[in-house]
Specification:
The protein is mainly alpha-helical. The chain has helices at residues 24-51, 56-66, 69-78.
Length: 109
């Protein structure tokens, strides 16, 4: 009997079976990339404001766009991703609950 994987090369990449968060170093690298990208957008905005100085409203628009970029970049770079909400199984037995004990009923008749 032939197996299904016969003739195929085996893929040695690990399969992610948990919902673990990325490591701190990966999170930091992602935040650093976002910061560098946003700060890198500020300089071209100022250059474009200089290029379009004859069209005052367009130059002003580029200057106004470049003003909050450092503040936004710092906020995004310092913000860690939100923690994931763990879903609790509704069918899991609650081990801390007091279990009902059988009680003897006494009639007053």
């Amino acid at each position: 009997m032939k197996s299904r994987n016969e003739g195929k090369e085996r893929d040695d990449t690990p399969v992610l079976i948990t919902e673990a968060e990325p490591s701190y170093e990966e999170q930091y690298a992602a935040r650093k990339r976002k910061y560098m990208l946003m700060m890198g957008m500020r300089f071209p905005c100022l250059i474009l404001a200089g290029v379009f100085y004859e069209t005052w409203w367009l130059a002003l628009l580029f200057v106004v766009l470049s003003i909050p970029l450092p503040w936004i970049a710092v906020l995004i770079a310092n913000d860690r991703p939100a923690r994931k909400v763990e879903k609790v199984s509704k069918y899991a037995k609650d081990r801390t609950a007091i279990e009902a004990a059988s009680r003897r009923v006494i009639d007053s008749d």
